[in-house]
């Protein structure tokens, strides 16, 4: 019998997160004040985040200790298994060796609790009673609900009304872990009330939900706000994935030539890829790290590198990022976690320095890859995860064409148990291609009046 | 950091299933022909099942080899982890040590693939092209779809129309693994057409769905039928759970005083409990094994031991079982997997011989236990699994009252990702108590004219 899974023991859960900033040849540019456009310091984040997370956000230290309390909760589902994809390899008839790290074993079903747990922990430690956040499809909201519940904290989730009405099961999941879920816009905040007054029938947006969650945190001393991707400390926490994967690849007596992960705000990709990039930066290895994005939201492959806002309204600091423009509205693809206009700061700098690569996949190709994976490997992937599979398949096919064997590793970041509607749409022929024209991208970028970067 | 999970390596997946019949002091009574009421032999099963499974159904051998091809697919999710429930223990403030075996890591989310995979394998080996089955909520149907897909076999699932319409996501899951799913009654069978003609608007029943699946198998030489519980070979396959658990408890340096599992047809309970009962039967240990059933379907705690049909219509052989009568219609509780009128033959004999125990829990108590578990351990359990949790909590509370520490192990047989509607109903106060009156049970049993057992 061939060995399919490479597992680690609970005691092998890493004890430190890896901060890639320490190893970057070009450090990220500073964030700018949205009004003055002058560089801002960490204190600007103090109303929203606890001190320890702000420290991590700007840290230059290479290794940051993971508290025992956090590792203890990680141990509910970590270390996660790493698989050799024998079934997929056979179906592709490829000389490539394909591995995947499976993050869907967490209680909420994705990699998101890797950062939700430490975020809740540091807030609790600093006396915070309540954490607010926004959520679209609900993957991040349920991870934070799970984490807050473990530290006996209140969790308030502002869920885009469209999702609240159409995807009730994620909401119930959050309730089961004790979180309060509001359809956004809600009557619980000034921002929400103002919008409801003007547009009583609105289905909401992620931008509005962020405004509500941020308002609650900014106006209550015992309340802070949490974000599920983009920021440096979020990427930092996710490096637990890649560190385990490095150990597991070593245990398998192998090492990837290519590392692949889906790309939304960057934490999924950072989580798997940064510990392998460390081997490139510190040991001179040449592992290709590829971010997988949807063709309907191609900020890495077709966006520009300049300062832009993190939100639609333009309230956040200006960040140096690959962006399609903060007013860009991606098509309503099922991979909701990848529908974000910009890329996190660190990943953007790495792409600019050509230390990583990016590849975009069409929605139809992505679901085809997801179904092939389910039928050959058994696990039904989330649509976000299926983007990574599509890239892995593309690279494995290249190996076949070129007649070379390469070792490919990708992040299977979550299962599709809450995404069955997406698969139903695929089988019903309702999944459409979403190729953006250059005119559409140019039109969005033309609206930007944020500082350019030379 | 306390050790929470006890894991095994892939190579530690057991190599044999355990057949408790070999160790039983009183062997099960023979099945009877539904018409003649005379004992029947294994050949009566030949139209429906492959030879190897029929052999296992009547085997007296203590150990039966697990084929490498089956172990290879098991390795997608096996060995499953065994957890120490520190969070639940703390919440209950009990001196008891509580462990649980978690079977929700399988791709379909429950223990069902443990038998679906070998059933598909043996059918494939004997040249069968297609397997048919019935499914209610869809847990068993999706396990079989997953298994057939791995052996490149067709899978036809007759899904009760009410579930087909109201629980579309399980159906999509089965489609994703390539299965054909028919709302039952369907036009694909004579039985279905006959019922549709008479009752075009019927929402179907499990009894009708069984008739359709059986008809397809009985009338097509390349087609067989598969069952997800009750039968001896199904229980046999599930013993992989308990064998792993015995090894894991030994690794933890502990051994349970009490072993608990939810009870529908018996395979869930058999899976965890039989390898511990072996220690009782072969080594003189005194581990209490408790089956958890709903008060709305209490065949073990309030049924009678006599011959009865396995199906509602009365087409199957007569089996010696604890039963509420084959016409008994349980309340529509969310734990669909536990809504069965009878108990499997082996488990019934063991209960009659007082080698195992049974406990019934009310629906409201069960959901309260499920939510407490989700909030203290992190994993949201399936309603079926929450029955086992309720029993574990009851026993842990007894330990507290009596001031003694006992070691409790239960089977967390599946996650609740597809059961969020049930939790929503619970939070909305829509889950009702279902206590049956003695009159209701007597009325159902009074209809029985099947052979009694002295």
TrEMBL record, chains A, B:
Gene Ontology terms, MF aspect: L-serine hydro-lyase (adding indole, L-tryptophan-forming) activity; pyridoxal phosphate binding; tryptophan synthase activity
Pfam families tied to this protein: PALP
Positions carrying N6-(pyridoxal phosphate)lysine: 112
EC number: 4.2.1.20
Pathway recorded for this protein: Amino-acid biosynthesis; L-tryptophan biosynthesis; L-tryptophan from chorismate: step 5/5
Annotated catalysed reactions: (1S,2R)-1-C-(indol-3-yl)glycerol 3-phosphate + L-serine = D-glyceraldehyde 3-phosphate + L-tryptophan + H2O
The Tryptophan synthase beta chain-like PALP domain, residue ranges: 77-414
GO cellular component: cytoplasm
Cofactor(s) listed in the protein's UniProt record: pyridoxal 5'-phosphate
The organism's place on the tree of life at top rank: Bacteria
Keywords, alphabetical: Amino-acid biosynthesis, Aromatic amino acid biosynthesis, Lyase, Pyridoxal phosphate, Tryptophan biosynthesis
Homology family: Belongs to the TrpB family.
Purpose of the protein: The beta subunit is responsible for the synthesis of L-tryptophan from indole and L-serine.
Subunit structure comment from the entry: Tetramer of two alpha and two beta chains.
PANTHER family, per the entry: TRYPTOPHAN SYNTHASE, TRYPTOPHAN SYNTHASE-RELATED
Name under which the protein is recorded: Tryptophan synthase beta chain
């Amino acid at each position: 019998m061939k060995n399919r899974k490479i597992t680690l023991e609970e005691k092998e859960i890493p004890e430190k997160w890896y901060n890639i900033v320490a190893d970057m040849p070009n450090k990220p540019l500073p964030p700018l004040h949205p009004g003055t456009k002058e560089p801002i310091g960490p204190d600007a984040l103090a109303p929203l985040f606890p001190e320890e997370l702000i420290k991590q956000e700007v840290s230059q230290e290479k290794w940051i200790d993971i508290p025992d309390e956090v590792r203890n909760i990680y141990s509910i589902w970590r270390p996660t298994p790493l698989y050799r994809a024998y079934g997929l390899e056979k179906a592709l008839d490829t000389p490539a060796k394909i591995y995947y790290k499976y993050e869907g074993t967490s209680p909420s079903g994705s990699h998101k609790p890797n950062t939700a747990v430490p975020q809740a922990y540091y807030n609790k430690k600093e006396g915070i009673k309540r954490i607010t956040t926004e959520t679209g499809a609900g993957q991040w909201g349920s991870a934070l609900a799970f984490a807050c519940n473990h530290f006996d904290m209140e969790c308030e989730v502002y869920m885009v009304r469209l999702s609240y009405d159409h995807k009730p099961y994620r909401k119930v999941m959050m309730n089961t872990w004790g979180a309060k879920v509001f359809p956004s816009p809600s009557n619980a905040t000034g921002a929400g009330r103002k919008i409801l007054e003007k547009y009583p029938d609105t289905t909401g947006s992620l931008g509005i939900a962020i405004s509500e969650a941020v308002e609650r945190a900014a106006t209550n001393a015992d309340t802070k706000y949490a974000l599920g991707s983009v920021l440096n400390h979020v990427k930092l926490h996710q490096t637990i994935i890649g560190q385990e994967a490095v150990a597991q690849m070593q245990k398998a007596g192998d090492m990837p030539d290519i590392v692949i992960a889906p790309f939304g705000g960057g934490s999924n990709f950072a989580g798997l890829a940064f510990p392998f990039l460390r081997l490139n930066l510190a040991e001179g290895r040449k592992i290709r790290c590829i971010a997988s994005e949807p063709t309907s939201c191609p900020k890495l492959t077709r966006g520009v590198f300049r300062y832009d806002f993190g939100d639609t309204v333009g309230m956040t600091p200006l960040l140096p990022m690959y962006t399609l423009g903060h007013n860009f509205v991606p098509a309503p693809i099922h991979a909701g976690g990848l529908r974000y206009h910009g890329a996190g700061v660190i990943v953007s700098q790495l792409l600019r320095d050509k230390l990583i690569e990016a590849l975009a996949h069409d929605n139809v190709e992505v679901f085809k890859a997801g179904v092939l994976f389910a039928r050959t490997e058994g696990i039904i992937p989330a649509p976000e995860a299926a983007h990574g599979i599509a890239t892995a398949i593309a690279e494995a096919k290249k190996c076949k064409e070129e007649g070379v064997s390469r070792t490919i590793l990708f992040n299977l970041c979550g299962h599709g148990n809450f995404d069955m509607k997406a698969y139903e749409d695929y089988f019903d022929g309702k999944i459409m291609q979403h190729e953006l024209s250059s005119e559409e991208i140019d039109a969005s970028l033309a609206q930007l009046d944020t500082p350019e970067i030379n």
